[in-house]
Amino acid sequence: MVKYATDPVTMGPLNQLKAWIYGEDNLSLFGMAKGIEFWEFLNINPKYQKSFNEAMACDSKMINLALRSCGLVFEGLESIVDVGGGIGTTAKIISEAFPKLKCIVFDLPQVVENLLATNNLSFVGGDMFKSIPKAHAVLLKVHVYI
Ligand SMILES: C[S@@+](CC[C@H](N)C(=O)[O-])C[C@H]1O[C@@H](n2cnc3c(N)ncnc32)[C@H](O)[C@@H]1O
């Protein structure tokens, strides 16, 4: 398991924060420091990809708490697409809470491959900068990082 908060690959780029802030290229901090963008790095390093997916999934379990007080947000919707939805932790919780709601998890192909669909939960791989599946609502749940 990779410990993101202490791993030199993931934390090392912070040493170049100043150069990144004052630099003029369009790369992310990780991209500038490592010469490869983060998502591409994950794609070719399965150990990091697996740990990253698990970390995101762990954080997403908190959606259970939000659903208790914000469930109304989803009522009346027929379909929703979770863009960048990772391995589907958030969408799974929503799909179970609202069995009539069709939930689509959209993420990079390598993230959603081999994930099991259910009655109202499906997985679609692709690039959100090109197109996303049609749905009545879009969920975009992100984490802040550089
Ligand atoms: C910070 S994670 C958020 C995951 C999830 N939404 C959550 O809250 O736990 C960002 C997600 O976006 C996905 N992603 C990155 N670039 C993407 C792209 N071009 N198209 C689709 N998904 C992408 C990553 O694979 C990752 O699962």
TrEMBL record:
GO molecular function: O-methyltransferase activity
Key word Endoplasmic reticulum present: no
Domain (O-methyltransferase C-terminal) ranges: 16-141
UniProt GO BP: methylation
Top-rank taxon, per record: Eukaryota
Gene3D superfamilies in the record: Vaccinia Virus protein VP39
Keyword entries, A-Z: Methyltransferase, S-adenosyl-L-methionine, Transferase
PANTHER family given in the database record: O-METHYLTRANSFERASE
Protein name as annotated: Isoflavone 7-O-methyltransferase-like
Gene: LOC107468405
